[in-house]
Amino acid sequence: MVFRTYLIVLLLLMGVYTEVMAVDTRLTEMQQLLGKGEAEVAFARLQTMQSVHEGELDYDLLLAQAALLTGRENIALFVLERVLILQPRLYQARLLMANAYARLGRPGLAKSELRIVLSGKSIHPELRKQAESMIAQLSTAESTNRLDVYLAMGFGYDSNANTSTSSQTFLGFNLSPESIATPSMSEMLNLGLSWQQRLASNSVFYTKVDWRTNLFPQASFVNNEISRYSVGWQKPRLYAVEYQGTSVNVTGMADRSGSHNDMHLYGVMYTGTKRQSNVNLRIGQQRYLPGEDIKDVTQYSVGGQFSLSDWRKNTYLVTTISQDVAILPTSPYGRNTAGVDIRTIVKTMNPFTVGIGAGVLYSEYRGLFFGLGRQDRQSSLNVGFHTKRWTNWELGLDLAYTDTWSSIALYDYTRFTLGLTFKRNYQR
Predict the structure, then answer these.
(1) What beta strand segments (E) does 272-312 contain?
(2) Is the peptide bond before 351 cis (omega within 30 degrees of 0)?
(3) In the chain, what are the helix, strand and coil shares in percent, each to the nearest 5?
(4) Pairing outcome for strands 203-215 and 275-288
(5) Phi, psi (deg, nearest 5) at residue 270
(6) Beta bridge partners of 158
């Protein structure tokens, strides 16, 4: 949500609160640049002055406004927190902070700041008017329904598409050439849409449908069509310094080999200005077509996530412990798993973001495969580049690489995918 008009008005009100700006004529020049709409130039120059003026009220307010006008909301929050620690009744700073929260998609925190402004007794009439108007717009936005439509295209590579060994022999048997591990490359097409319907001020229903197909795979045994669905409900509660909420999400997946159904329970969440932690509980079930039902399992998992944000990046650490219970008593596919994943999303030149992530997953199966115990170790790397340069449009380029080692060579493989995504958002 963009509140650029409010920022421009705030610039005109700078004189109400900044009486000593003339101490440094360069700060006056920066204010003039902002008034002319040259926020990017002003921000760059203000950064060069940081070592001299950091912590000064006039400088911090100008830097926060320049950061907001150039799409650097996290920088603005960092600076404004410093201001409000020293001057908690500086309502202009709270308006700017509300603006930053609104742009970051956190309307509850934005409205909390605005209510503090409206509770002030000596507030400037124009600032009060802005606060009232922003609260009205945020309330309207909270009732907005949203539709996202996306298209993804790309290609993938699998070094062991038919789940076999690269050796000519296995357990003393000679394999035919077509039974040896076969790589496959394929072009992918992915279509999907998601819908969010707000039922009340603190209750949201959402659904998502996704379809993917592999075009012209080199190996005919590669699954060439997958469909997914997701239906969920969320009831968040927003406060000034924390977010607690509960949601229920039911997902499903079907392909040529079977289906996958999940129920995802999500709760016990705490969010502060810079830190967020939560616990995920998940129950799911994988079922395959007759003849492959030996793979059927019920899945239970618990995971934790901790995130840390600063002025230009968000870092996430995710840990997961899970157990797959085989549905058939004779199935070897029951297993215990443990994994850790770390991701960092860096905001570069607005509106571009770069994300990179790496993870490790270890699995130990409780049954025997060909009379042998099985342990798998999977390493993954993900890199993505996304931009929202155009209104209601998002463009993304993503690379995913996975390498799996197994104590049984049949299950060794290397896989990577490269995809280009176009996403269009509709709101009403």
Answers:
(1) 275-288, 297-309
(2) yes
(3) 30, 45, 25
(4) unpaired
(5) -130, 135
(6) 184, 415
For the segment(s) 4-142, the CATH number from 3.40.190.150, 1.25.40.10, 2.70.98.60, 1.10.150.170 is 1.25.40.10
Q: Which CATH class is domain 146-427?
A: mainly beta
Q: What is the C-alpha to C-alpha distance for residues 115 and 100, in angstroms, rounded to an integer? A: 15
pLDDT in tens, 76-121: 888 998 898 888 888 888 989 988 888 777 777 888 888 888 888 8
pTM score: 0.63
| φ and ψ at residue 129, rounded to 5 degrees | -60, -45
- 327 is written with which tokens? 């549905």
Between strands 146-158 and 184-200, the pairing is antiparallel
Backbone dihedral angles phi then psi of residue 75, each to the nearest 5 degrees: -65, -45
Each residue's pLDDT tens digit, 348-365? 655 678 899 999 999 999
Task: For residue 108, give the 3-state DSSP assignment.
Answer: helix
Closest by CA to 231, choosing from 213, 252, 212, is 252
